């Protein structure tokens, strides 16, 4: 009788909710949301659907759990590890037009004015953790948008807001402005990272002999040839679009938002920002 009582216990350990979610993430990474079916999941786990339904009620719950697992992992990395510049990425740009993937120059280390491990530094680390997670999991931006709009009381939205909001509070921002300042950072981070991931996904459809540099060079030349009366700004920044680095551009955006937050809300910074022109 002893082996019979131990067998179900071993099966429960082997087919835990964590293992099911891990397999779901693998399927999502390989084939997107359309590839995540309970049939594909049972085949990957070599089990029956009943065993999976014991842990997860339906596909929506499974998608929520997969999103939560990826975000929890991204936010649990050590800040110093997250803030390191990445290896050259196959990406078309965090806010520029989509382009074919190809090697880019790695972003150089930033030298912020504040001391290491400051609230600003921790916000950058969280931002890069989310940036990399979204880059690695192309299905994630859609699920994050759904989480923020459909179920802000679920586990994902509070995780993200808490990780950034604590640092906004540590900056000394008055309590009445915590939500607005944190929301501005969250929306920039998820929006810019999501656009970067979309550019990368779009780049995969280009022929393998077309690399990122060639695509951006062609796009830049097209911008330079636009009518100077209708597009003076686009023509002026065309060269920067050609040469931009995705992660440097992403970090520059974070620093712009942080500069605005500190200039508006920190007592010592208010006098340093000139008033707007009348």
Task: Label the overall shape.
Answer: flat
Number of strands: 0
Structural class assignment: mainly alpha
- Low-confidence spans: pLDDT under 50, at least 5 residues? 1-13, 80-111, 270-278
Q: What's the helix count?
A: 13
Radius of gyration: 22 Å
Largest sheet: none
- Helix and strand sequence: HHHHHHHHHHHHH
Overall average residue pLDDT: 81
Distance between the termini: 87 Å
Helical residue percent band = 55-70%
Strand content: under 5%
Word description of this protein:
The chain has 278 residues and is mainly α. The chain contains 13 helices and no strands. α2 (17-31) packs across α3 (38-45), α7 packs antiparallel against α9 (156-170) and α7 (119-136) packs parallel to α10. The protein is flat, with a radius of gyration of 22 Å.
Short description:
With 278 residues, the protein is mainly alpha-helical.
Question: How would you describe this structure in keywords?
Answer:
13 helices, 64% helix, 278 residues, mainly alpha
Give me the secondary-structure topology.
Layout: H1 2-14, H2 17-31, H3 38-45, H4 49-53, H5 59-76, H6 79-83, H7 119-136, H8 140-150, H9 156-170, H10 178-203, H11 212-224, H12 232-243, H13 246-265
Helix pairs in contact: 2-3, 2-5, 5-7, 5-9, 7-9, 7-10, 7-13, 8-10, 9-10, 10-13, 11-12
């Amino acid at each position: 009788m002893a082996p019979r009582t131990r067998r179900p216990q071993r099966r429960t350990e082997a087919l835990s909710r964590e293992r099911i979610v891990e397999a779901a993430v693998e399927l999502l990474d390989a084939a997107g949301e359309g590839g995540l079916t309970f049939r594909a999941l049972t085949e990957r786990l070599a089990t029956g659907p009943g065993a999976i339904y014991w842990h997860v009620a339906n596909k929506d719950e499974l998608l929520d759990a997969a999103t939560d697992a990826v975000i929890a992992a991204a936010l649990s990395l050590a800040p110093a590890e997250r803030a390191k510049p990445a290896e050259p990425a196959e990406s078309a740009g965090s806010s520029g037009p989509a382009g074919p993937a190809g090697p880019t120059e790695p972003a150089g280390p930033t030298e912020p004015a504040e001391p290491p491990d400051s609230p600003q530094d921790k916000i950058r680390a969280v931002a890069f953790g989310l940036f990399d997670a979204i880059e690695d999991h192309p299905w994630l931006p859609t699920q994050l948008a759904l989480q923020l709009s459909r179920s802000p009381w679920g586990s994902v939205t509070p995780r993200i807001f808490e990780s950034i909001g604590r640092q906004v509070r540590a900056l000394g921002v008055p309590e009445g402005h915590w939500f607005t300042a944190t929301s501005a950072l969250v929306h920039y981070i998820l929006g810019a990272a999501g656009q970067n991931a979309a550019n990368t996904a779009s780049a995969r459809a280009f022929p393998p002999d077309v690399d990122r540099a060639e695509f951006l060079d062609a796009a830049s030349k097209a911008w330079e040839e636009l009518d100077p009366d209708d597009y003076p700004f686009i023509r002026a920044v065309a060269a920067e679009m050609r040469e931009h680095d995705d992660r440097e551009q992403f970090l520059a955006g974070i620093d712009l938002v942080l500069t605005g937050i500190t200039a508006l809300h920190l007592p010592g910074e208010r006098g340093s920002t000139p008033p707007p022109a009348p």
